[in-house]
Amino acid sequence: MSLKLFQVLIHQVREIIDAEFGLMDETGMIFACSNEERIGQYDPRATKVIQSREQFTISDGFTYQKVYIRNKLEFISFIASNDANSTKQLSLFSVNVVNLKSYNDEKFDKANFIKNIIVDNVLPGDILLRAKELHLDYNSFRVALLVKTEKTKDVYVHDIIEGLFPNKAKDFVIILDDENVVLIKELKINDDYKETEKAARAIIDTLQSELMIKAYIGIGTIVDNIKDLGRSFKEAQMALLIGRIFENEKSIINYNSLGIGRLIYQIPRTLCELFLKEVFKESSFEALDTETLFTIQKFFENNLNVSEASRQLYVHRNTLVYRLDKIQKLTGLDLRNFDDAIIFKVAMLVKKYLDKNDNIL
């Protein structure tokens, strides 16, 4: 930030503070002062102030205060007085310094700007102007990856992700809350989903190996301008939500690979319930035990091939045929018939969706 802003602050408050006061960096170089002749000079007492364990130091008629921002020593404020009011006056001045620095950093912080875009906290008409102010390439290819983990104590997931993607000029790591971190990654081409999947896998593996944390990642679509990052982020959210319903065994879910799950998710709940009543009359689905459901799963995995499915189930072919006949009697659907198999498969997905929603509610 411009150091001139601190000099402006000093001009605003020097009518209140009678004594000479100002700011220096950790080397002792004075960069803002009510006595402008001292700007650029060095205060030899800075080393003594830094080495002191106290926040305030009194030396040679001056009172000094160490100014911390985010637990980091940023400045040393001083006042040419050591009377009873010196500490109070210096404290008030230092508070204003911290607020000014924090406000300016937030105003011109690229990651904060990106965060405001994805959470719809900036007007679309202002995005291009702000991108220019921050020297951000407006038309680069970027994608949003939403990383979801369980709540952890004294573990900073974002630090790990920032370590994996240290180029802060192009890749941005944004903290949403204790469980959600967003990586906005810049790409070279507009369809580089292999690179995106590779980045997601690196995050999953590193969090597992270094922090022993299980993570899930939703990937949005690649966008070609900064304004559309909000859409990519919302797609990443939807990918996680839908993926956890229909493909909860996967740790990486791509919005472009949601398949029929996305279609079912957009169907109103009442229509889903009507469809299930139509397919599974008289609660016929509830009559299917765990072994039968596992049989159906293997049968579908083997593309309705009776011989291959029976081999993987370690049962005789006739045993599998008997089970399929039993399913047909209970549900009225012959899974060896392609059309019936499709209806049953979709119905199972719909039921899974409704059951997940019930658990959430």
How does this structure look, described?
It contains 14 helices and ten strands. It is α+β, with helices and mostly antiparallel strands. The chain has three domains: 4-107, Beta-Lactamase, CATH 3.30.450; 110-262, 2-Layer Sandwich (Alpha-Beta Plaits), CATH 3.30.70.270; 268-360, Arc Repressor Mutant, subunit A (Orthogonal Bundle), CATH 1.10.10. The strands form two sheets. The chain has a five-stranded antiparallel β-sheet. Helix 10 (269-279) packs across helix 14 and helix 12 packs across helix 13 (317-331). The protein is elongated.
List the helices and strands and how they pair.
Blueprint: H1 4-13, E1 21-24, E2 30-33, H2 46-51, E3 56-59, E4 62-69, E5 72-79, H3 86-107, H4 110-118, H5 124-133, E6 141-149, H6 157-164, E7 172-175, E8 180-187, H7 193-211, E9 215-219, H8 229-246, E10 252-254, H9 260-265, H10 269-279, H11 290-301, H12 306-313, H13 317-331, H14 338-360
Parallel strand pairs: 9-10
Antiparallel strand pairs: 1-2, 1-5, 3-4, 4-5, 6-8, 6-9, 7-8
Helix pairs in contact: 1-3, 6-7, 10-14, 11-12, 12-13
Rg (C-alpha, Å):
31 Å
**Considering DSSP H and I runs of 4 or more, what fraction of the residues is helical?**
40-55%
Highest-level CATH class of the largest domain: Alpha Beta
**Spatial order of the strands in the main sheet?**
2-1-5-4-3
Tell me how many strands there are: 10
Structural class assignment: alpha+beta
CATH topology of the largest domain: Alpha-Beta Plaits
User: Which CATH architecture of the largest domain would you pick?
Assistant: 2-Layer Sandwich
Count of folded domains: 3
Overall pLDDT score: 90
Largest sheet: 5 strands, antiparallel
Fourth-tier CATH superfamily name of the largest domain: Reverse transcriptase/Diguanylate cyclase domain
User: How many separate helices?
Assistant: 14
Query: What general outline do the C-alpha atoms trace?
Result: elongated
